[in-house]
Amino acid sequence: MTYAIILAGGVGSRFWPLSRESLPKQFLGIIGKESFLKAALRRIQGVIPPKRIFIVTNRSYSRQIRKEVKGFRVPPSNIILEPKPLNTLPAIGLCARMISIRDKQANLLVLPADHYIRDNAGFKRAIFKALKLSSAGFMCLVGVKPDSPCVGYGYIKAARRIDKDIFSVAYLKEKPGLKTARRLFKEKNIFWNTGIFCFKAEVILRQIKDRLPGLHNQLSRVKYKQDIGDIWPKIKAVSIDYGLLEKSQGLVMVKAGFDWSDLGSWDALCGVLASGNKKNVILSDCVSLDNANIFVSSYGCRRLIAAIGLRDTIIVDTPDALLICKKENAQDIKALVEILKRKKKSCV
Length: 348
Hints:
Number of helices: 11
Low-confidence stretches: none
């Protein structure tokens, strides 16, 4: 049978000052009133039944998760709580282990909780193709054509065409620097890695055993939820991209036709919302004079914002913190948040 694993444990620090540790991005309605997590759950309706949807998140978000999934009929037993975030591979491996105890032939769809996808019908078409491939034993990625040399996304180099919209994978490059991103963007058969994966539980667990035997040994000790607390301190943080996929052979990719963004930063949101010649996005009470390609928004406060002569600038105002940065530095907000943590500022 097919199961979904929704990754909902991240903080989304690049969306500071709106996204906080106490209320991270996946629980926010940044585009529209519905949170990213609810949108992700709604997106897989009709693909996977609620009783086979698993959500893995940080233990501190337990109450918020249960509130978010109300109405979607996801069993409380399917909410897996991490004692602390250890990136994507331990979270995926843990869910794969727990699902495989229930169903050794489980086919898994893994997707983040905080993506923006406009075309749900196109999403489902791509997912059905990917699940068909994974049911045959392949590890399958979903890729979309890039529209810019973005450094916030991973890249997939497609190789041989297997079928319509299905390719073998030559290699992956996770979040390259700007110089490399520009080079990749110019190459043929380059795709953004959406972070949506399909594979059988036994396949991913075997890959973990071959590549990261220490992680596999710890996961193998889990039989019940109460075992998680014992093994988690002994596991190192690692992403599925760095820890596994960049080293794996025989990967396949489905080329997706839907509009996609992981909305990992304010400049990504600008790309989704910008329109008009000057590409200004103004979502608050703002007087704008001679500005171009700026983003202005306020949350929880009614202060007037006045902007003059700005170019390529992000302004985000909240009651206790104001962010002003160039769009080209939007990826550096994560580093800024780490500085704020070290300074023990309350606004993180």
